[in-house]
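Could you help me review a protein record that somebody else here produced? Do not assume that whoever made the record got everything right. The record follows directly below this note.
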Amino acid sequence: MANIFREPLTIIQDTGVTVNPNNTPLRAESRETITISIGNEVSTISNPIFLNVTPSNEQFQINEYIIKPNALTGSISQLGSLTSDSLFVNNDMRVLGTTTAEKIESQLTQSMTIFESGSTLFGNSLDDTHIITGSVTNSGSLSLNNYSSTNISDDIYLSIGRSDYLVTENVVKNYIDDLNSDTLQIYLRKCFAHTGSFSDSDTFTFNAVTASSPAGVTNTRIDDFMFFVNGQLMESDALTIQQQGSTLRLDINSDNIGYDLTNDDEVVGWGKFNS
C-alpha cells in the first residue's frame, strides 16, 4: 500500500539553487523525480565560484591564506591582472617581470620621482647628497645652478670658443704650457714699425709680413696694429688689412676718416709685424 502526503510538499528554488520542477506541489501519489542542483561542482577537485561569502570570526581561511577585512595573511602568486585604485604593501614586494607605471615616487628611505615623460627627480632639498659609484653616461646637457653645458671639449686650440662647453685637463695644460712657452713670449714682444707705400687714395702697402700667433692665441688681426697718417692715429674701424704673400695691404675707408689720402701722405704701421 503506497503512502501519500496529507499536505503537499513544495520545493522552491532560491539564489544559487535550482529545483526542477520548481514550486510544484508533490503528493507522492505516483513516482516523481526532483532534481536539486547548484551552480558549481563541489567535489575535492572542483573549482567552485562564490558570489558572496559570509566569514566566521570576521575572517575566511583557505589553506595557509587568511582573509580578514582589509587584510590578507600569507603569500600570493598573481597570475592574471590585478586592478586596484590603491595598493598598500607593508613589507617587501618582489616583481619578477616588468613594472609599468606612469609615475614612480619613492619616499621614506629615499626621495625619487620618475615621471611619465622620462624625467627623474632625485632628492627634495639642497642638503641632499647623491653618491654614484661607477661611470655616468650623459647624452644630453648638464645644468649646474641654472648654467647649462652641452659638451666637453678636448680642442687644445680652443678654436670653437663656445660658452656652453667645458674643457678637459689636457686643454688647460696645453694652454698653460703655451702661455709659458718661448714661442708665446716672442710673439707677445713683437712690435715693429713699417712705412707704407702709396697705391691709391684708399690703399697703402707694406713690405712686411704679420706675425703668426701661437696655438691657443687669437689670430693676428687689425686690433694688433696702430696706423698713423702724418703722425695722426687713424681709427681702426676705418681700416682693414690683408696679407698678400710678402706684402701687407692696408685698405682705408676715406668716408670714415673724412678725407682722401695722396702720394704726399706718410702712413706708418706699428704692431705685430713679424720682423
Helices lie at 169-179, 182-189, 254-257.
